[in-house]
Amino acid sequence: MSKYPNTFLLTAFFSIANLRSGQILARGDFIYHLQRIESFADLIKEHQWFGLRNFTTFNQIGVANNYFYPYVYIWIWAIPFVLINNPIVLYYAGLFVIMLTGLALTYWCVLKYSGSKYQALLVSVFFMTTPYHTFLLVNGAVLGESLACTFIPLFFYGLHKFFSSDKHNWQILAIALTLTAYAHVLTFLLEVIITVGAYLISLFYKAHRLMRFISAVKAVILFAMLTAFFWVPFLQEWLQTDIQTTVVLPNVAWLSDFGNLITLMLTNASLTGVVASPGLASFIGLILITVFWRKLDFEYRVIGIFGIILLLCSTSLFPWYALPSAIQNTIQFPYRLFNLVSFCLILVGAHVVVQIMQKSRKLAQDSVRPLFLFFAIIGGGLVMYMSMLSFNNRAKLTKIPYTQPTTLKTAFNTDYKLDKNNYEVALQSPRKFFGTIDYAPKPTWLGNHQDTLITHQVLVNNKKVRSHFETNSRMITYHFKLQKAGWADVPVLHYGNEVVKLNGRSTSAKMSQRGSTLVKAKRGWNTVTISAPLPWTFKVLLPVAIITWLGIIGWWIRQRKTNL
């Protein structure tokens, strides 16, 4: 990898070229993840370090999305937000790190798999600059899935080591699944489905069957030790409260027919702005697989077929609408398969290109022309990437106005510019964005309950009473006065594991019809404080994960010394 750091740095810098404008284009999931980062930053500033509920962000209604949405990388990203008072630069620095890590990790995995530096460079550059990855990372700020994409090459390399070796090579697969689970649950579930499917197919082969079973058990145990601190509280909260994860769709959305997807791939999905597509590099990989099929060895054929199957499954050729609605609402968008499609097709396509280069070099006894062709291909890929970024960022940033302080009427606004002067506006309430009440109790999704919650309305008999509140990263306190004793509906989501205090004393509470906290208040002034301590399971299992990671690092260092 030491020969190509400049290529990786250049590609990663392209991703943050818009930093020079000093602005962020707030689109898609940006506000959602920004509020998660700021919530963790508030916890760290107040020396609370970590929390699973959001009391200072997400309209200060106590959303519990950290129970259900992985947070490891977001928490790490929040640390610089505490140390450096420049959120615009820090956001772009995070994108740079994601991109650079993805390039380096893809290069290392493909190099270990193929033994070819040229193939590793081709795959790393073209995989990390596909339109779909650009759509996630830059256009839509879908940071969880972008982070998960970074570990797809490690996952495939782990699969290769697990199934192709006659030794107990299970550690890489377990670590790859762990790193993915730290980022994005759906990508993790797709990888689990692939792993289980591959394992079941391997049972038809008698060789090393017992060894694979033992290795699989070890991998599951290691994965559990590294991730139980997330999964156990997740399951506890899921079983305790009837929640709705996100907007329920009648069917999967944005499902392309095969012809339209091919058109998007041929145009690199960027004629009218970056949209979801595997991209031109994947299409070229598909053509190379078809033309040179007979010259591919068995493993590359398997990868190519798998990529083609996933490509077909991402279109209307697959009977998505015939699946149960629960499955359709879990996947939501079939284009989520594009990262897997791109890696498979680009990996095999790059292998064919390198084989052609090597054969050309032998026939012509000339190493200059093949190398010139190789770097021309890399350069062409970078030009395509720059064109996507140029169209999608600079042009739109000149058209989208700055946001203004919101009212309920203008609360939903996901297309605007942020800079150091108006950054704080994005954190003010009331504000609606994609994911505002994700993972809230189901009643919250009904009627206009969201509106009364994000405007901080204390209700008595469905009528608003005057109130004010103060909040910090661990709790929120409401003050209000009643003309007579009665049930007061405080605008903080109720999951059942909160600590509720009324006028300084612990009290019982229940869920109201809008999914918030209902308490029996007295006549006169009342003070209601709601906090959400960390579950004991998290406190026990997090040290287990940390100790396990330290053990893995120690084992790796010892292995390195032994090999030297």
Which secondary structure elements does this structure contain, and how are they paired or packed?
Blueprint: H1 5-15, E1 24-26, H2 30-45, H3 72-83, H4 87-114, H5 117-128, H6 131-139, H7 143-150, H8 152-164, H9 171-181, H10 185-202, H11 209-240, E2 243-244, H12 258-266, H13 280-291, H14 298-313, H15 325-331, H16 338-364, H17 368-397, E3 416-418, E4 440-441, H18 449-454, E5 458-460, E6 463-465, E7 467-471, E8 475-482, E9 486-493, E10 499-502, E11 505-506, E12 510-511, E13 516-521, E14 524-531, H19 536-563
Antiparallel strand pairs: 1-3, 2-4, 5-6, 7-8, 8-14, 9-13, 10-11, 10-14, 12-13
Describe the 3D structure.
The chain is an alpha+beta fold and 564 residues long. The chain has 19 helices and 14 strands. It has helices at 5-15, 30-45, 72-83, 87-114, 117-128, 131-139, 143-150, 152-164, 171-181, 185-202, 209-240, 258-266, 280-291, 298-313, 325-331, 338-364, 368-397, 449-454, 536-563, and strands at residues 24-26, 243-244, 416-418, 440-441, 458-460, 463-465, 467-471, 475-482, 486-493, 499-502, 505-506, 510-511, 516-521, 524-531. Strand 7 (467-471) and strand 8 (475-482) form a beta hairpin.
Helix content: 40-55%
- Report the sheet-strand fraction: 5-15%
| Shape descriptor | globular
Q: What characterizes the major β-sheet?
A: 5 strands, antiparallel
Number of helices: 19
Gyration radius from CA atoms, angstroms:
26 Å
Overall average pLDDT = 88
Rounded to the nearest angstrom, the distance between the terminal CA atoms is 19 Å
SS elements, strand count: 14
Model regions low in confidence, pLDDT < 50 over at least 5 residues? none
Protein name: 6-pyruvoyl-tetrahydropterin synthase-related protein
Pfam families: PTPS_related
Domain Membrane protein 6-pyruvoyl-tetrahydropterin synthase-related: 66-414
Transmembrane segments: 89-111, 132-158, 170-201, 213-232, 271-293, 300-323, 335-356, 368-388, 536-557
